[in-house]
Amino acid sequence: MPTSAHRRKLRILFASSEAVPFAKTGGLGDVAGSLPRALKHAGAKAAVILPKYGTIPQEYRDRMKHVADFYVPLAWRNVYCGIEKLELQGLDFYFVDNEAYFKRDGLYGYFDDGERFAFFSKAICEAIVKVPELACDVLHCNDWQTALCPVFLRELYRGAPQCNNVKTVMTVHNIKFQGQYGDKMLSDILGLADIPAARDQLYCDKDSINFMKGGLCYADALTTVSPSYAYELQMPFYGEGLDPIFRRRSNILTGILNGIDTSIWNPKTDGMITANYSADDLANKAECKRALQEELGLRQDPTRPLVVMIGRLTNQKGLGLVRYAMDGIMRRGVQVAILGTGDADQEEAFRYFDQKYGDMMCARIAFDNALSHRMYAGGDILLMPSEFEPCGLSQMIAMRYGTLPLVRETGGLRDSVVPYNKFTGEGTGFRFSNMNADEMADTLLGACELFWTNQELWTKLMLQAMATDFSWRRAANDYMDIYHGLHPEVIRYNKRRDR
Ligand code: ADP
């Protein structure tokens, strides 16, 4: 029986290449900005570490305090690294400073991204050794940019007392991006060429190495952002070449559905929507729809189901199905509004439909956060026929606003949307299973039929969707279970509170 001396908070260092509100290009930024705070509420001592990018707003840069500086060995180089700190709403953020690597106009897309994030990962390991306040029990790494941390820790830092009981968790947010580079990096930057185990596990073909593969092989626990994606990653169709590793390590792979920031996404208090409403009083949602139709130049007609799509216009999002089915959907008198930016051919296609269908179809090719709020509030249906979707936030946001999602059964879409069951009346949205435009259109027109013929039932589904709990509390408790599984010698400080 462990003594009470072992009851303490686990120290979690959350390593991420982006975190809201400092830097964001996708879902990872949202997760890193929200989950660590939820971990604190769940009884951990959590902090976040990310690069000090040149794009971080000045107001935050002004408030950062210098904590430490040292040199990071990168093969034959010794590279300067500063550690700065900023406390924001009770959470400590640490920034890795090296202007040559990070003082640029964007986050990614540079010729030396491999070197930049190898440096970032190594700097995190050095910081754990050299900066006492960064001592941790669990280093939680995210995507390829921090995937080398588990490799470095095991191969190069095992001897350091600050590191020998640090466990690593590796979370996959999107397996499409893996950090694959020429193998010259092994000797020239990583300094791992003489370590056979590291070499073997980093190689992905005869002359390339893969950062993500290294992280997946070396981490003590693997997670991804939904249970279904955890299962899919083990299949060749979704695994992007790494499915054998997910199969081999499936016993330590867990899928945990992301949450959303329910204080931002709340139709009752949202200052960006036309009129506030809640599950207790839905009346104003109709006004949100009318105002959205007006704003987008659509016919102001409450009897038309308004289908909205919000997201990146890329192949991942299943836009081919929408393009194929568009004429058929339009013929049935349904309105469609799309907000997004992305691949040029996709943007062009939706501009064409916008022209063709006048006041029944609108394509806004833009990134517009305020408009996205008004679309979540004003729509009747959110369409998300993704080819793959690790988690997906839009469908969860839509449900908060009583806009019923219609999704393909994949990844987090499958895990978050309960399909309408005409026998029991259960459901928070609609689902179809195959990447098939006719199947999608049938499901969509079936949903519209329900909208036209049974408003009472429609309202019931809206209320069921709005009542679903998408807060981070549930996810944070699941991560705590994993951390504590890696540290059985530490008794949990707070019991799970959601059971
Ligand atoms: P992904 O991470 O694959 O881009 P998600 O559904 O997980 O997709 O998250 C997308 C987030 O970005 C959502 O919050 C969505 O509202 C927002 N978003 C995407 N495109 C736009 C846009 N053009 N304008 C405003 N918000 C957008």
TrEMBL record:
Q: Tell me which EC number(s) this protein carries.
A: 2.4.1.21
What general EC class does the enzyme of this chain belong to?
transferase
Similarity comment: family membership = Belongs to the glycosyltransferase 1 family. Bacterial/plant glycogen synthase subfamily.
Q: In which pathway does it act?
A: Glycan biosynthesis; glycogen biosynthesis
Pinpoint the Starch synthase catalytic domain residues: 11-247
UniProt keywords, alphabetically: Glycogen biosynthesis, Glycosyltransferase, Transferase
Amino acids binding ADP-alpha-D-glucose: 24
The record's section on PANTHER family has:
ALPHA AMYLASE DOMAIN-CONTAINING PROTEIN, GRANULE-BOUND STARCH SYNTHASE 1, CHLOROPLASTIC/AMYLOPLASTIC
Q: Which reaction is the catalytic activity of this chain?
A: [(1->4)-alpha-D-glucosyl](n) + ADP-alpha-D-glucose = [(1->4)-alpha-D-glucosyl](n+1) + ADP + H(+)
Q: Where does the Glycosyl transferase family domain start and stop, copy by copy?
A: 301-444
Q: What does this protein do?
A: Synthesizes alpha-1,4-glucan chains using ADP-glucose.
Q: What protein name does the entry list?
A: Glycogen synthase
